[in-house]
Amino acid sequence: xxxxxxxxxxxxxxxxxxxxxxxxxxxxxxxxxxxxxxxxxxxxxxxxxxxxxxxxxxxxxxxxxxxxxxxxxxxxxxxxxxxxxxxxxxxxxxxxxxxxxxxxxxxxxxxxxxxxxxxxxxxxxxxxxxxxxxxxxxxxxxxxxxxxxxxxxxxxxxxxxxxxxxxxxxxxxxxxxxxxxxxxxxxxxxxxxxxxxxxxxxxxxxxxxxxxxxxxxxxxxxxxxxxxxxxxxxxxxxxxxxxxxxxxxxxxxxxxx
Length: 257
Ligand code: MG
Ligand code: MG
What we know:
Blueprint: H1 7-30, H2 37-50, E1 54-55, E2 67-71, E3 74-76, E4 90-99, E5 102-111, H3 117-135, H4 143-156, E6 160-161, E7 167-169, E8 176-180, E9 197-200, E10 203-205, E11 211-213, E12 220-222, E13 228-230, E14 233-238, E15 241-244
Antiparallel strand pairs: 1-4, 2-4, 3-12, 4-5, 6-10, 7-8, 7-9, 9-14, 10-13, 11-12, 14-15
Helix pairs in contact: 1-2, 3-4
């Protein structure tokens, strides 16, 4: 069942979303050569709590971090730790914040120093596929329109769409119905209605869309060691169309070339 939120609940989620977005801005500003992902995690947790929020991921099924920090061929769910960022890395950072009983969830992929042309292209295409998906979040459209929009943009650019991981409804819980694959036919699935809130999150690769799990039981990698990108927004379906609840004020310069 897809839970529809009231206008007042969406405003609470937008406040949670602002904390998520400013945490990601802090991560963008702080992630550079020589910094460890554990240091980023500590910064994020301190900041989220200073805003009155709770890092949603911490303790979720035993996850130890406040962020997921996933470098290079790691797609998602990286546990922050001693990994020290180096020039040329591509780092995906995922943040969830619970505020006044509601969750917002967003992710970005950050180039560390100067990255390869392929890495910039991967970020650009991931961002564009997310934007195409967000544009589908209108009453009367169907869930499959969101999925299809991602797949169309990603595959037209020669990259792979991960099948094993999906976006999701979000609200009082981080993971609500429905599951939102990043592939599939348009025009199928439930009709979208005002009050639905989705975490839409293309996970794309420069090669195969197959995945392998890491030994820690969390990290998910591309199965051919190709680079991955992951960008996510929490988006409300409203009468007026899509409303992104996790917008950042820092535009992704690399996303526009
Ligand atoms: Mg997320
Ligand atoms: Mg999510």
